[in-house]
Design brief:
Strand content: 5-15%
Protein name: UBX domain-containing protein
CATH topology of the largest domain: Glutaredoxin
CATH architecture of the largest domain: 3-Layer(aba) Sandwich
InterPro entries: FAF1_2-like_UAS, Thioredoxin-like_sf, UAS, Ubiquitin-like_domsf, UBX_dom, UBX_domain-protein
CATH class of the largest domain: Alpha Beta
Organism: Pristionchus fissidentatus
Number of strands: 8
Number of domains: 3
Order of helices and strands: HHHHHHEHHEHHEEHEEHEE
Strand order of the largest sheet: 2-1-3-4
Structural class: alpha/beta
GO molecular function: ubiquitin binding
Largest sheet: 4 strands, mixed
Number of helices: 12
Length: 472
């Protein structure tokens, strides 16, 4: 009840809190006024509140709206008492207790005036107190929009040395914020964090109170900075509202869409802080904060969201560990397979090389054999015919060959010694590899070193001779 019993609709919690603050301020001011009145030439004045506190509430509400405070006394609070020192004391008391006209206002108007008073006065416009929107309608991208949001937010609520109290807003699109929060590209699962969507509307009566008392609260900020990705957006303009609705649909934020729609139907519930987690491939809303929530309530909901996502992270870390183990096993198996294949290739190449070398060796040996046989055939063809046995020009030579027994050949004494050497070579015993020892006694001679052009007669070759062929 206000003004001694007049009924009004209950004000929102934010309004009630501000009303209590202004009530305390009015009480302090009243005490100072009473003290000054006692010291003045006028008679001291005593002002008594009603027991139900209605006058104080009315004074706070009216004072916040810019109107002079209305002071009245209720019968329930007792009659005012004053000590008069002169005949004019009654007039002085009436002057001091003069009641001003009561002004009835609805809750929204009162709250707006309270908020204006808390900001040091200014325009009564709800949607443009600061003149610059958080996100202009001409922003070409989400990156530009979120950058502008952060700059204007800091100018509004991070001034007077409070720049360090800014929330850690993510710069970029909603899709990028989701990826950064729940995927953490190229980083471990432990660095993943839940996502908080901060949706602002300058038409709300709490457009200044909530950012200052909740979003810029030191404990809330510490939690947001260390444990959350915070993506901001402003829906004051219809164009920006449509963009947000479209992005929510594109990102499959099915839990968040009806909440945003309900807040847009009653904008005084803004600002809105939606807390999101992820289970498997599905994004899920854990809870949300609105204009009626205090910093303590916000801390409770943030911690609850952290706990909900922590259980999901345990499962994600387990899955990541299993994937890592499977990948390690796959890599080990692949390494072993590659080593086995390499060994097989090496073995096959070795076999092929050996076969190729063997074939080449055989071909070479055959070629050498053919060449040798051709050479021997040519040598035999070049030998002169044997002279008739018993002729005066004939000498007989018996060759003892290594591992082949003996060979007998008749030569003409007029033939050069090279004929004897050619015969031995035709039998496979070239002079380069073998020596020929005669039968001279006591010391045998190596006749292979004799002059091949000299005739057997010149060399005094005996009619019968035995030559031992030895390997050099």
């Amino acid at each position: 009840q206000l003004n001694g019993g007049a009924e009004q609709e209950a004000a929102p919690p934010v309004v009630q809190n501000l009303a209590r603050e202004y009530e305390m301020m009015e009480q302090e001011e009243e005490k100072e006024e009473v003290e000054k009145a006692r010291r003045s030439p006028l008679a001291p004045v005593s002002r008594t509140h009603s027991n139900n506190g209605g006058v104080a509430v009315e004074r706070a509400l009216a004072g916040a709206g810019g109107a002079p405070s209305s002071r009245s006394n209720s019968n329930t609070g007792g009659a005012p008492s004053a000590r008069m020192d002169s005949d004019d004391s009654d007039d002085d008391y009436d002057y001091a207790m003069e009641t001003q006209h009561d002004e009835e206002e609805d809750d929204e108007t009162v709250a707006r005036r309270l908020e204006s008073a808390s900001n040091g006065g200014g325009s009564s416009s709800r949607s443009n107190d600061f003149g610059v929107p958080l996100i202009p309608t001409d922003c070409d991208s989400a990156v530009e929009g979120t950058q502008n949001f952060m700059c204007v937010f800091e100018a509004r609520y991070g001034s007077n040395g409070r720049g360090h109290m800014m929330p850690p807003f993510f710069i970029g699109s909603l899709q990028s914020a989701i990826r950064e929060a729940f995927e953490c590209p190229d980083r471990p699962v432990c660095e993943r964090r839940p996502l908080a969507l901060y949706i602002h509307h300058d038409g709300s009566i709490a457009r200044n109170v909530f950012p200052q008392t909740v979003m810029c609260n030191e404990q809330v900020l510490q939690l947001l900075r260390s444990q959350f990705i915070v993506w901001p957006w402003d829906v004051t303009a219809k164009e920006n509202e449509n963009k947000l609705t479209s992005w929510l649909n594109e990102c499959s934020l099915y839990d968040a869409r009806p909440i945003v729609s309900s807040f847009l139907a009653k904008i005084d519930r803004f600002p809105l802080l939606i807390l999101l987690s992820k289970e498997g491939s599905q994004l899920r809303m854990i809870d949300y904060l609105n204009s009626n929530d205090s910093a303590d309530t916000g801390m409770e909901k943030l911690l609850m969201c952290m706990e909900a996502y922590a259980s999901c992270k345990v499962s994600l870390e387990k899955q990541a560990q299993e994937r890592h183990e499977r990948e390690a096993l796959r890599q080990e198996q692949n390494r072993e397979l590659q080593e086995s294949l390499a060994m097989d290739r090496e073995k096959k190449e070795k076999q092929e090389r050996e076969i190729r070398e063997q074939k080449e060796a055989e071909e070479k040996a055959q070629r050498e054999k053919d060449e040798k046989e051709a050479h021997i055939a040519a040598l035999k063809a070049s030998l002169p015919e044997e002279p008739a046995e018993g002729s005066a020009d004939c000498c007989s030579v018996r060759f003892r060959l290594p591992e082949q027994g003996a060979a007998l050949r008749r030569f003409s004494k007029s033939s050069p010694f090279s004929v004897v050497l050619t015969f031995l070579e035709s039998e496979g015993f070239p002079v380069a590899d073998y020596r020929m020892m005669n039968s001279d006694f006591p010391q045998k001679k190596d006749v292979s070193e004799w002059n091949p052009k000299a005739t057997l007669a010149d060399l005094k070759w005996p009619t019968r001779e035995v030559i031992n062929v030895e390997e050099r």
